[in-house]
Amino acid sequence: MLLLDNVTAGYGDTTVLRNVSLRVPAGATVALLGPNGAGKTTLLRVASGLLKPWTGRLLIDGADVTAASPHALVGHGVCHVPEGRGVFPSLTVRENLLLQVSAREADSIGRAVDAFPILGERMSQVAGTLSGGQQQMLALARAYLSNPSVILLDEVSMGLAPKIVDEIFEFLGRLSEAGAALLLVEQYVTRALAVADYVYMLNKGQVTFCGEPGELNDDDVFASYLSHAV
pLDDT tens digit string along 82-105? Predict the structure, then answer.
């Protein structure tokens, strides 16, 4: 569904990703792991069209979309949930949700309430005044309403209470069951591995492991994070 083919990218004169290839099959969940500064967020920005690669290609469902705008990639079914609560803080919960649907589909926001009932009690509340967990639920609900085929998720559990993290991962499971492909950057390694079909390890801008979660042992993970620290 999503393919980064030999991508090199960065900012200014700084190279962040070096010849990275990564594949997210249709309907699969892929965990992207690695230490801080490894290039994970940069990779998601390339995948959503926010950052153009210097070399290499981005393909969606076989179509070369390397030069496409972020808006065009949304049309290809790509949804990016960035780190740090991807909501419009000055709009109400209802307004945030309505942005994802057409006027004829306004009644479909009930699906968001079914997914996260607390949002139904906060429809008139300004999103910026919600708790961190509620804002993340809203960000995910907005992604849900856009009916994406591939969802890019950047640290969606960061800073949340364990109970909220459980709800978030339960929801991600439902997205996967509905057929969406997920590329998941996640700080909770064990939680990510538990839901992933495939895993990539990224370190210093390069892929150091690619395979199924069962092929990755704790020593591999520890070595990757430790090597960055030292």
Answer: 887 678 999 999 999 888 776 556
In the chain, CATH 3.40.50.300 covers 2-77+149-229
Report DSSP letters for the chain, one per residue: -EEEEEEEEEETTEEEEEEEEEEE-TT-EEEEE--TTSSHHHHHHHHTTSS--SEEEEEETTEE-TT--HHHHHHTTEEEE-SS--S-TTSBHHHHHHTTS-GGGGGGGHHHHHH-HHHHT-TTSBGGGS-HHHHHHHHHHHHHHT--SEEEEESTTTT--HHHHHHHHHHHHHHHHTT-EEEEE-S-HHHHHHH-SEEEEEETTEEEEEE-GGG--HHHHHHHHHHHH-
pTM for this prediction? 0.88
CATH architecture, domain defined by 2-77+149-229: 3-Layer(aba) Sandwich (3.40)
